[in-house]
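Researcher: For the record, we're logging two predictions in this thread. I'll number them. Prediction 1 follows.
Model: Prediction 1, sequence and structure:
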Amino acid sequence: MYPVSTQLAAFIARTEAFTSDDSSLAGLRQNYDRMCKAFTPPKPKGLQVSDCALGGVGVRSYLPTAEAPAGGLPCLLYMHGGGWVVGGLDSHDFICFELANTLQVLVIAIDYRLAPEHPFPAAYEDCRAVWQAIQAGEGPHAINPQRLAVIGDSAGGNLAAALCMGLRDDGQPLPRAQVLIYPGLGGPADLPSRRDCMDAPLLSTADTDCYLALYLRGTRHPLPYAMPLLARDFSGLPKALIAVAQFDPLRDDGMLYAERLREAGVQTLLYPGKGLVHGCLRARGQVREVDVLYDAVLDYLKREGLTQV
């Protein structure tokens, strides 16, 4: 039903091999972490990785070998995926390694609180706390605030978009750009991708509904900071790269968000992700079309001055 390449099919099969009969929350998290670890390459030589706290929230910094310029390092603030329920710092080392080493920029990943123990707005507030600590100069390294962007995948893409929206609404400094990779943005249930990709590999429509319900537990009236597509005003937001996956129930969230941003006059680039599935970022170096996605993201960040190479 989903005509993916032979390479991507092999990646999907390898990922699905980590499926367990243990459907408990602890079991889901343990399996996700084991799966992510299996796809994490060795740490690049010379990259300094350290954990600390910013604004009372745990973070991991990835410091490249390049010497910091006089004005401070360009920096990417990374928000990991996992449906707001699974994942953490270890689960997304793989992409933070890549970003920091290839672009020679500082990457700071946020260990935000997870649902359902900590439903909305906990994760959103954690991301804001880290942002504000960086703005206050509390980061572990000198950062150039004019060369600071946010990036996230899946639930992390939601948090990156929500952070931009909240900062705009409060008149605070904004990121230079927002990069959202197959984000879940709270689109309506009747979007075509919910139906067309109902049983897509690695993420089904039922999965997305379950994760969102856990994230919104106890929230009677969801805000745009939980579901950015609920916003009425999309103007004044940072320029954006939005990358979607063709075979993903969340595909139309990203496409609709790109459309809303463009209508509001925000410079927006949409990457259509032909032949891709949700969660494919882990297939770096194994699947040609995933490598092309990485090239698009890295090229965009370079064009936006978020590089030292």
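Researcher: Logged. Prediction 2.
Model: Prediction 2, sequence and structure:
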Amino acid sequence: MVDPTTARRITDAVDAAFERQLDFTAELVRHPSLRAAEASAQDLMAAEFAARGFEVDRWALDEETLSTHEGYGPTTVAFEDLTNVVGTYTAPAGKGRSLILNGHIDVVPTGPEETWRHSPWDAVIEDGWLYGRGSGDMKAGLVTNLFAFDALRAAGLTPTADICFQSVVEEECTGNGSLAALQRGYTADAVVIPEPEENMLVRANVGVIWFRVRVAGKPTHVREMSSGFNAIDAAYRVMAELRELEAEWNSHRGEHRYFEDLEHPINLNIGMISGGDWPSSVPAWCEFDARIALYPGVSADAAWQEIVCRLRSTSSGADVSAERTGFFAEGYVLEEGSEAEAALADAHREVFGSALQSFTTPGYLDGRVFALYGGVPALVYGPVSRNIHGFDECVEIESVRRVTKTIALFIAQWCGVEEDS
């Protein structure tokens, strides 16, 4: 553990810079880093890395390289628009345990902006919360990584191990951003990802598959409806059969460690739908995009084959086909008892005055990239948020302050620090 005097110096340094940290978080929120439009936000992150003297690496994701990896998810946008930024701090001492501080810059669409209390890009602070799309998921976390490091330097301390700061894309749809960083050779003795996790540590999370289903129909004029085949009506019957598959998978939750007590860990979401060409024509086609979860230990290939089999045997009477459109990701479990978790628990207790709690989430996290394919303990731990992916997304400011202190103390314990000469 970090001695109490040093710990106080570090946490005081977080407090001293916290207004500046909030200002920078708000500035980052004001950059609408939607999918394939993250460039301006990545410019900002690259400039911050460079200002701290980090070695900056910026590159576009490469489809040929990524598609060879088992953890790759099909990407439906141009790869030249998908850019990662990594800043590397190289420790002068060259000892201690190395660390990756990872976060994603991409955000999901806002939905109808008139439904928000404030513009999703205005970064309004109100009643102890910072509002805006991406404020919680997860720009506050990205900034936390930087300012936790800054607190050590402001306290007159130099980390004694290398630290890699990653600002990645594609977390919300494929996970290919973190996967690309791993393929590029970035690895460490531990990784911290400050996703909005209610001041807790994620113990396990599901895998995810995205797919598009196309249902074919037979068009006719509505005056002769009985001679046609309505693809939209049939699509709803196909959805109902996928719901049956969802229920089957949920019924097996007792067979999967850490998921036994979750009421509904496997969630199927029909996220988009379109079909037909004319109100007075029986529709010849309908497509819908879906997301479904899978348990850790279940291969994405096996889950996909079960989905395809269900679609082939549908009783809708329609010609049904499906393709993968994004996530093809397996879940993972953070095994208990690692030194990294113990160090985070010590830091959390110092700041919060209570034991670090862990939980299981039915959502996707990039921790799976490091845990499954890099053999790196992945600590997903971050601040309290509300309404992520919804209207009026926001992050609790005091929680951000405390999480920043916790990560700063973790860096000091995990990487080691020396007094500046």
